Amino acid sequence: MDLTKKFNKQVGKIAVSMIRQFDEQVTGIDNIIKLTLGEPDFNTPEHIKMAAHDAINQNFSHYSGMSGLTDVREAATFFMKEKYGVSYQPTSEVLVTVGATEAISASLLSILEPGDKVLMPAPIYPGYEPVITLAQAEPIYIDTTSNDFVLTPEMIETAMVEHGDQVKAIILNYPSNPTGVTYNREEVKAIAEVLKNYPIFVISDEIYSELTYEDQHVSIAEFIPEQTILINGLSKSHAMTGWRIGFIFGPQNLIAEIIKVHQYLVTAASTISQKAAVRALIEGMNDAAVMKEEYRERRDFVYEQMTALGFEVARPNGAFYIFAKIPVGFEQDSMKFCVDLAQRQAVAIIPGVAFGKEAEGYVRISYAADFSILKEAMKRIKNYIETNEVRTAAFSSEK
Q1: Residues 6+ apart with CB under 8 A from 22
Q2: What CATH architecture is 9-43+288-387?
Q3: Who is most buried in 81, 132, 154, 276, counting CB within 10 A?
Q4: pLDDT, average across residues 179-190
Q5: Contacts of 193 (CB under 8 A, 6+ apart)
Q6: Residues 100, 205 contacting (CB under 8 angstroms)
Q7: For residue 8, is pLDDT > 70?
Q8: Euclidean distance between CA atoms 322 and 180, whole angstroms
Q9: Above 70 in pLDDT, residue 391?
Q10: Region 178-188: what's the mean pLDDT?
């Protein structure tokens, strides 16, 4: 009896993330250096861990309310006001979620219906499309590769004219995974000026907001709060990926609908993690600063190394990724390139195709790794580039 044939047909249209698949594929290679996953290599700050320890001892081991503990919602709205100048009511305009991933799912499943279209700049993090597919909606990709991965108001306007009333939402992710691109105040305002002319949701995934290198991060919610479903969390800013704390901020009328889906997905976030989050958001408000400076040094090092080897790289100004064009003369199938690199030099980076067809021919490097590891990885990539002449013919013969 094969019950898989009775699954929701939409499930058959999605797959496990190619990032995770590739990471597992190369795990067994001897002495492998993995610059694959988007996870800080720093540990959670000690004062945050102690807050969780105290919460356990004080028996915070029961459900919180669906929206999250009052003190963490107050802390989250305080943080957003102090850092980015956006104001939300803690009692009605914020939800505590199980990481930004659940925030994305709850938001998309709340607003999408069959036949809806969702605009997304490409390349883009691959965690959005599967949820859109499950909702029987359609992703519409706006190719930004010709503009150093920068989404412009003109690109949005063109997409809106082409797809019209079918567009239900646009997803923004900045600083961007995988490119590291982000936007200054003028650029964010210009995008908002276009979007305010259309009755669509703006789902703004700003999980890397604290890792902005040159300018202060600017949230689009500052300009169009009534349209914006703002997503953030503590995974990247406070090295708390395993604690699974995210947030959805938005107008009361939108949050009142999203909470219905959120509740049936997860009930509520971990109470222990929420108590730790209070400490992170208040006493640890600037915890990311030290990590950011380290990331900046790593970015500069990897950027210089990769460009010297012939990779084209749009210099990232946020997050912790280098998104590089494979040099001419090497296999442009990014999966084959990355597999060959892993097998020959024991260094793993993510194929660009994991971020959409627009990203084919690129690779993503996560520099969330110790400097000594990055130096060795760059040495191995240099060996690969310098000791392998044009390999296109060799790859073709292996097909």
Answers
A1: 36, 335, 338, 348, 350, 351, 354
A2: Alpha-Beta Complex (3.90)
A3: 276
A4: 98
A5: 153, 223
A6: yes
A7: yes
A8: 7
A9: no
A10: 98
Q: Read off the pLDDT of residues 78-111 as tens digits, 9 standing for 90 and up.
A: 999 999 999 999 999 999 999 999 999 999 999 9
All structural domains of the chain with their residue ranges: 9-43+288-387, 46-286
At 231, the amino acid letter reads I
Q: Are 67 and 266 in contact (CB under 8 A)?
A: no
Six token digits for residue 96: 């505590």
With beta carbons less than 8 A apart as the criterion, state whether 54 and 275 touch: yes
Q: Is the pLDDT of residue 399 over 80?
A: no
Q: Tokens 């600017």 correspond to what residue? A: 218
Q: Is the CATH number of domain 46-286 3.40.640.10?
A: yes
Q: Please tell me the distance from the alpha carbon of residue 324 to that of residue 359, in angstroms, as a whole number.
A: 10
pLDDT at 45: 98
pLDDT band, very low/low/confident/very high, at 396 (cuts 50, 70, 90): very low
Size of the chain, expressed as the number of residues it contains: 399
Token pair, residue 3, equals 């019950």
| d(C-alpha 373, C-alpha 376), whole Å | 5
Where helices occur in the chain by DSSP H, the ranges are 18-26, 46-57, 70-84, 99-111, 129-134, 153-163, 185-195, 252-266, 271-281, 288-308, 334-345, 371-387, 392-398
